[in-house]
Amino acid sequence: MLQQFGFTQYESQVYECLISDGTALDATAIVKQSGVPRAKVYEVLHRLSEKGLILESTIEKKRLYTALPIETTIEKLKKDFENNVEKLRNRKRKAAPADDRVWTLKDNSSIQSVLKDMIVQAESSVFISGWTDDLQNYLPLLEGKAKAGITVKIHTIGELDTSISEVSTLVPDVHHDTLERSRIIIVDDREMLFAGIEESKWQAIRTQSGPLVKFFTEFFYHDIALTEITQRYQDTVMKDEKIRSVLMNLRY
Length: 252
Prior knowledge:
It is a single chain. The chain is of the alpha+beta class and about 250 residues long. It has ten helices and nine strands. The protein has helices spanning about 10-20, 25-35, 40-50, 70-90, 110-120, 130-135, 140-145, 210-230, 235-240, 240-250; strands at about 55-60, 60-65, 100-105, 125-130, 150-155, 165-170, 180-185, 190-200, 200-205. The strands form two sheets. Strands 3-9-8-7-4-5-6 form a seven-stranded mixed beta sheet, sandwiched between helices. The mean pLDDT is about 85.
């Protein structure tokens, strides 16, 4: 348990020795029972004492050590962890210059976290495209941004119940057998993220590159335009085999 919180193997061994014995031990006994070398044991005991995991006492010129109870130790570690998380959360990043490099990102939970952060950081506009069940995860943030006066435009595959006014909805039918899961977000006309599934795993690219941001912004409007055209003139385009074949090969 302690090693998972960043403690060394020797620190873990000494604590386990002390908590298992249940009585106060001197350094000699700790060496024998923990397996920690004598040359290291005083250094380890000092570190554990500094971290507040053991108690020390001197009785008849002999230095004795005992461990905090398990529940007390767990409570302390939880408190330390929560404090560290709060410090990390409140740490301010320096404003970075524009970065036109293309960054790749894997793992769906990481992609979702980055996407949420991009929405939170948005100052003027958010354009986002995705499937309804996926967009639901970001809807409270998006609606909050819209209420704050930020331009929010959504392209959704499937019906989406939202107070946001600018929503383009594609309702898939039997002809849309090539539709693939994906996400696009463009924030403040300066940064974008595109995520898709490759070999059953989510992968994404993120960049502030001007040409790519412009390209994916146009791609976003391309999806909206095709959705609106298809929905409005569905009877016409779907009856024309040639047009239908072209449309159904598109990603939207």
